[in-house]
Specification:
Layout: H1 12-15, H2 23-30, E1 57-61, E2 67-69, H3 73-82, H4 89-114, E3 126-132, H5 139-146, E4 154-162, E5 165-175, E6 191-197, H6 202-221
Antiparallel strand pairs: 1-2, 3-4, 4-5, 5-6
Amino acid sequence: MSDDSGSHLHSEESTQGKCPVDHASREKWATLNQSSPGSNPHNPHQPGGTLPMERETSSIPRLDGDKWVYPSQAQFYDAMARKNHSPRADDMKVIVPIHNAVNERAWQEVLKWEQGRGGEKCGGLKLVSFKGNAHKLTPKARLKMLLGYQAPFDRHDWLVDRCGVRMRYVIDFYTGRADPNTSSPTGNTSFYLDVRPALDNFEGIKMRFGKFWDRWVGNTARPTQSS
């Protein structure tokens, strides 16, 4: 039984030192911001070019004790240019902060699921590997679409380590309505993240059922206190 199954994560060796979004997913993020037609393109034949090379360190731990590092604007651009996605240099100053902020939010959602499950006993939860699966809709996403919801613009599979126990998390990314008054790092672009453990094993099934029970049954089952 495997809702959200069928995806193969990168090996640890292939993802060490990268950010928790692979090259295949970056084109999806590029569509979130459209520059004016007059934006100046960065030259893909000059790696780095005039775009900033500074990289932001994430809050997401790796197995080796370091933190995952997000790509610089230049790296993000060059990775897209190599795959002929026609990126625009002016877009990078918007896309990269959005990319980083949304991944930080995704990690916080994973931590909420993992709270109280023992990861703190060995220094905290760690992200082992990741993979973008934008073209593989999960069963839950398909069901939502049948109910009239929009399709997610991206999907990630993150493999985390909880003191030697490996858990795969599925993340569906949805765009929401823009809020012009927001001061969020994502600008006026709104996001909804559907983060949950995959049903690969009994632990994932138990976690998902427990969440369902707490949300739909737990509150009504608790006795009310009289004043």
